[in-house]
Amino acid sequence: MSKIVVDMMGGDLGPEAAKEGVRSFKTLHPETELILVGDPKALADMEGYHIVPSTSVVKMDAGALDALRDKSSSMSLAIKTVIDEKADAVVSCGSTGAFLTMASLKLKKIKGVLRPALITSFPTVIKGKSVTILDIGASTENSAEELAQFALMGSLYSEFVNGVHSPKVALLANGSEAGKGTEAGKAAYTLIKQDSKIDFVGNREARDVMSGDLDCVVSDGYSGNVLLKATEGTAKAMSFLMKKAFKKNILTMLGYLFAKGGIKEMAHTMDYKAVGGALLLGVNGAAIKAHGNCDGYAWKSALCVADKIAKAHLVEKIEKRITNE
Amino acid sequence: MSKIVVDMMGGDLGPEAAKEGVRSFKTLHPETELILVGDPKALADMEGYHIVPSTSVVKMDAGALDALRDKSSSMSLAIKTVIDEKADAVVSCGSTGAFLTMASLKLKKIKGVLRPALITSFPTVIKGKSVTILDIGASTENSAEELAQFALMGSLYSEFVNGVHSPKVALLANGSEAGKGTEAGKAAYTLIKQDSKIDFVGNREARDVMSGDLDCVVSDGYSGNVLLKATEGTAKAMSFLMKKAFKKNILTMLGYLFAKGGIKEMAHTMDYKAVGGALLLGVNGAAIKAHGNCDGYAWKSALCVADKIAKAHLVEKIEKRITNE
Predict the structure, then answer these.
(1) Given this model, what pLDDT does residue A270 score?
(2) CA distance B255 to B44
(3) What is the secondary structure of B68-92 as a DSSP string?
(4) DSSP letters of B4-27?
(5) Are A204 and A218 in contact (CB under 8 A)?
(6) Neighbours of A177 (CB within 10 A)
(7) Distance (Å, whole) CA B65 – CA B81
(8) Among A41, B23, B95, B236, which residue is least crowded by beta carbons within 10 Å?
């Protein structure tokens, strides 16, 4: 049976959104054990759930050090509960820096893993198909060996969490030819190519990520972060311009009314809330960081990702693949 | 008087687009001397222009080495003409790799410049305002000193080519706080901060590039390339989805007809053809690489950028600033 710990207190929308997400998730997966960490008063209406009481909340802008000092916060207790209760995963939408640092330090790396990586899913132009990217920022610089392990972890994630048979894995580079990339990237290319269990398609440029041809893209943490945020920034800029375009005059406003159905479908394809945040892969127990402003729906998505990871025994699979080599 | 050499033969659309661009430019700037390099037959109708005859064309997919070997190509002769005729700039829309390698090798670096950088302009959400980014791929990895010189060159470019008084320069990083970034980036932060002639606003994330708050963003070549291509890929994906959204049914198609004016204005804001390609900064004579599929309008824009650089004496200004320090 899978067991998931939930930090109910972080995030901009507070425990109400978390509770809504937990209830929706539970309807879908009554078999999964959930442990809710939070202020007992705020969780008073969650009868029948296993509740671990906490007395404080890590602020959204808290630094990692401040957060580490406060042992009674819901975030700190949630991570501790993963260890105490041998849980499979922990979900929080509190401060990203605090949560990731805490999870990296306390959950310990899977045996054989050099560095944990932060992985997320991007939408693609193909409806319902996403592409996973790692590392998007757990590290800044990475060695070739670390990048090769990211390829392995990303491939397993795509296969067992996203359900892709023989996922196509690419290495992010400044050109699609072999021989492109940083020094570490070039050495990683050779290492990944040697791994017969990875369907490695070679180097790909950042412009190909959302094309729908790839299942997983491997990058060092710094460039992966640039990729993530450039995509976010461009999508934001284009949405802004699109809204402006529709507000130009009475005709364009009328146009919006007619086109609304299509536009909403497009917005849904690009919706990050449907893909469940980001998660730290490579530690004992997946640590899922849902978006800070996530609502009930986004909470449910994040819990579903945690559940898939748990049911797929992803941590064990990673350890087995890495130590066998 | 400014003098610009034009490689008329490269690009997907061939010399006809180049000729159209040259004629439009000449109407705007009759005072600028243009030297056109190309097949005399193809340029037979360009009476009154200074023509340097060439006998071959570098293929769009040519490698840098192949291109370097062919001394009679329009690209090779165009770069040679910059040196022979002491021209200010050269414009080509041929193979990017070939053109940049050739320009780097033959035009030589400006005195004091450690590494040339490839600079380009991105649109922002503010109509008519662009932001310049360098390096977007001349190098892969860069030292702190190189990054600091990019800040200086980018600031001068924004001021004298884009006409921005006291341009705001930011360093690309994986967080906006000081102390974020790669090791080289962190050291560059300190160096740039010490330069009182640069209005340095500190670290910025990739998501802030198109916000309209910045005039110039400095990055190592690898991450700058990721930024450029992630932006391009996202814009392409969203345009694709938008078109699909409008084609959904008869109502959405009707919506497009009404909203067309606004949508076209949005497309124009995002139009890379209006910003004039990319250029190699830091060599003696700016080398401007127009987009491979550029039409007459894009050619004209690229020639206007070349002309501004020439008239601003940008090369001299860079040398003066760098050697004075």
Answers:
(1) 63
(2) 48
(3) HH-TTBHHHHHHHHHHHTT-SEEEE
(4) EEEE-S-STTHHHHHHHHHHHHHH
(5) no
(6) 12
(7) 20
(8) A41
Residue of A67, A48, A49 lying closest to A58 (CA atoms): A67
What whole-number distance in Å separates Cα of residue A91 and Cα of residue A84? 16
H or E stretch at B64: helix B64-69
Nearest CA among A296, A285, A323, A292 for reference residue A5: A285
Q: Do A251 and B259 touch (CB under 8 A)?
A: yes
**A127 close to B (CB below 8 A):** no
Q: How far apart are CA A40 and CA A270, in angstroms?
A: 36
Report yes or no: A128 at the B interface, CB cutoff 8 Å: no
Enter the ipTM: 0.85
The alpha carbon of residue B119 is apart from the nearest alpha carbon of chain A, in Å, by 15
Nearest residue to A184 via CA among A173, A175, A197: A173
What is residue A215's three-state secondary structure?
coil
CB contact under 8 A, B206 and A244: no
Locate A174 and state its tokens. Answer: 């400044």
- Residue of B131, B141, B238 to mutate for A, most A C-beta atoms under 10 A: B238
- Whether B148 and B195 have beta carbons less than 8 Å apart is answered as yes
Q: How far apart, in whole angstroms, are the C-alpha atoms of residue B193 and residue B285?
A: 28
Regions of chain A with pLDDT less than 50? 274
Low-confidence ranges of chain B (pLDDT < 50): 274
* Structural contact between residues B302 and B288, judged by C-beta atoms closer than 8 angstroms: yes
The span from the CA of B223 to the CA of B240, in Å, is 25
Q: What is the mean pLDDT of chain B?
A: 90
Contact B211, B125 (CB under 8 A): yes
**Euclidean distance between the first and final Cα of chain A, in Å?**
29
Q: Distance (Å, rounded) from C-alpha A275 to C-alpha A272? A: 5
A–B: how many Cβ contacts below 8 A?
A: 201
- Please tell me the distance from the alpha carbon of residue B267 to that of residue B259, in angstroms, as a whole number: 12
Strand order in the sheet with B199-204: B50-53, B33-38, B3-7, B89-92, B286-289, B278-281, B117-123, B130-134, B216-218, B168-172, B199-204
Contact partners, residue A290, CB within 8 Å, separation at least 6: A11, A91, A92, A93, A276, A277, A298, A299, A301, A302
Q: What is d(CA A99, CA B83) in angstroms, rounded to the nearest whole number?
A: 58
**Extended beta strands in chain B, E state:** 3-7, 33-38, 50-53, 89-92, 117-123, 130-134, 168-172, 199-204, 216-218, 278-281, 286-289
Q: Can you tell me the distance from the alpha carbon of A237 to that of B210, in angstroms, rounded to the nearest whole number? A: 7
pLDDT digits (tens, 9 = 90+) for A69-95: 889 999 999 999 999 999 999 999 888
> Strands B50-53, B130-134: parallel, antiparallel or unpaired by DSSP?
unpaired
Residue A152 · residue A318 · CB < 8 Å: yes
Determine the pLDDT at residue B64. Answer: 79
Cα distances (angstroms) measured from residue B284 to each of B99, B299, B315:
15, 22, 6
